[in-house]
Amino acid sequence: MAAVAPASEPTPTPTTTTGRQIPIVCPGHTRPLAELQFCSISENDNEQRTFLVSACHDKMPMLRDGATGDWIGTFAGHKGAVWSCRLDPAALLAGTASGDFSVQVWDAITGQSLHSFPHKHVVKTVDWSLDSKRLATGGHEGVLRIFDMSQPKKEPLMFDQSSKEKVSISKCNWLDNSTVLAAGEDGNIRFWNVDETDASKQLTKTLSVGDGIRDMELLTLSSGKRILTVAAGEKVTFFDIVSGQQIKSHKMPIHFKVEGGASLHPSGKKFIAGGGRRGGSMALGAGKEGGELGSDLLVYVFDFETGKMLECHKGHHGPVRCLRYHPDGKSYATGSEDGTIRLWKTDP
Fold it and tell me: Phi and psi for 201 in degrees, rounded to 5?
């Protein structure tokens, strides 16, 4: 387990000021957003094209152009809220996790449903292996499942997060074609070797952040370094994925107990975050610390090294539930409870 450094306190006001930014608004969804993912591929003449997929409680995950936000298509078929939507690295397949106790695999070109994998409870997360051959899923069952796309009717590999209690899985990410990271509501990130047949050797490492994990992002920086970003409790924590050592942990002016997330810029120099208002909500019954009416509607930008707030932006009419930087770092997307996706410029 990695050593934990004390979290830095946030600064109450932005340390730099920027003019009011008017983001691109992407309508189409009708309920709160749950997850966003950018996926870049090389097309003819090595031109890069980037897609943006969104998971939403309206049961209708969508595919958009990652630069303009223009709608491309909708994956229609789920009967419950969709909590996660991920494109495979080639952007040919899409996987979706839903509250209807199922995961579906789609042809990302035609929108046709290819496979449906039943589960026994709400599924909160999916992720594709780097070679697109396998799909990892997790949710309220507390079981990490690995489906083989070459044998979709075959029973999946299954890994219980704990033998003592049920630990819900909030996010999962493939580290390589054999290792899956599963983020738990118990504040632990478990590294599973899914190719190991000896059960005593399958769990290879555990990282802990102390609070239920709301968001987890695995990013390879432009320098080549791989960083794991974790939003949990009232902190955003960063780990060196190779050594497992905690690099930074910053206390936020928001919390991630119910909603929100964080994303690191490809340069590794700053990060964005959004979530609930610290102190709770009077409408929900604030604790002894007091609270404020409503939720936090702002999008924040922080310095990676110090945790100082650099910018905060208004635009959404509901709490920010998910956000991600574009792979080129020039923009980022935020999804809100107001049912909209907004695209912001990193350096307006």
Answer: -115, 5
